[in-house]
Amino acid sequence: MNPILPYPPFNYAAAPTETPYYIIDRALIRRNMRTLEYIQKEAGCRILLALKAFSTWAVFDEMEPYLAGVAASSLNEARLGREHFSKTKDVHVYSPAYSEAEMVELCKIADYIVFNSFQQWQKFRPLLESCGRKIQVGLRINPEYSEVSLEIYNPCTNRSRFGVRLENLVDLGEDALDGVDGFHFHTMCQQGSDVLQRTLEVFCERFEKYFHRIKWVNFGGGHHITRMGYDIEHLINLVKSFRERYGLEVLLEPGETHVLHTGLLISTVLDVIENPNGVDVAIVDVSASAHMPDVLEMPYTPEILNARRAVEDVEGPLAEGAHKYIVGCKTCLSGDVIGEYMFPRPLQVGDRLSFEDMSQYTICKNTTFNGIQLPSIVSCDSDVPGGNFQVHRKFNYEDFKTRLS
Ligand SMILES: *Cc1c(COP(=O)(O)O)cnc(C)c1O
Known about the structure:
Radius of gyration: 23 Å
Shape: globular
Bound molecules: pyridoxal-5'-phosphate
């Protein structure tokens, strides 16, 4: 992961609740929102929040004013977006396939529905056209170009189920696009504007002959806009020149970038195990598997505030005389280990460990695997004296039980 802007010097571990908890800093969300606002203004595009990455509605009031709407991947997410974003904002939906029951409900609340295939569009076309509201219809395109090397995150492999390929379109003929208002592609993951540029070149070369039939193109998510070093001016130029060249509206629907570097997961060290055969282990009251699954799925090692990952190239004062620990979790899964770290002093039971950059793809992916405690959801505002700590949600036995039966 790239180094990102540092967290403000602020005591995030002072929230008035027990660990574990996620703490989201409203000031840092606003910082990201101002970047997205600038891009929308300069590039003349609209930016949506992909709810799949972050759906903590307790802080949506910090985001809604800056954004054009939400991108939902299910009826549940669409409903959440409709409830928490004002009527002037759009609810976009894309799903690899819709059920009949889902579509009936979506027709009441969605402003844009993106279909993954012609069959699904044809199947639901009568429903959409008779529902009494104008719903923008999009078609997901598979440009068959992606620079994502990890198979699990690559939507353009030969086996991909995502989107209409050029050959499908050629076979069906241009009239198949009758009633389609826009195209959608999503081929990126945590990438820069250079990847978008190369993707757009391929996308345009293959599909521009159809552009006269549509009004908008959604460039999907995966744009790591708020990461330090992202070339914002390059993105603006790409969007502007695409709009000017083709006369099409442009939408972006990243998720992660809205909340990049805005939240921590605060945990407590419950025990320290001496390991005569190697590195000592600290056990914390959170789980990679249940609370930060990308640590295992991607995989990656998150940063811990005031510690360093014990990677080969550790330099500087911490490396010398630093104390090395494996940080492991409170579940029975052997692989539920977060990583190896260097701490400035020996760890003790009761120490707080704050995992960085934990807003995205965490809270919305949590499970109660092992019956483990779900972290509370807390917000703060490091711009406000006192920090405006708010504990939005605590979870208990009932929450565990009622998801089972
Ligand atoms: C996952 C996803 C997004 C958001 O991706 P990020 O990597 O969080 O920016 C947007 N659109 C679609 C279709 C997605 O599947």
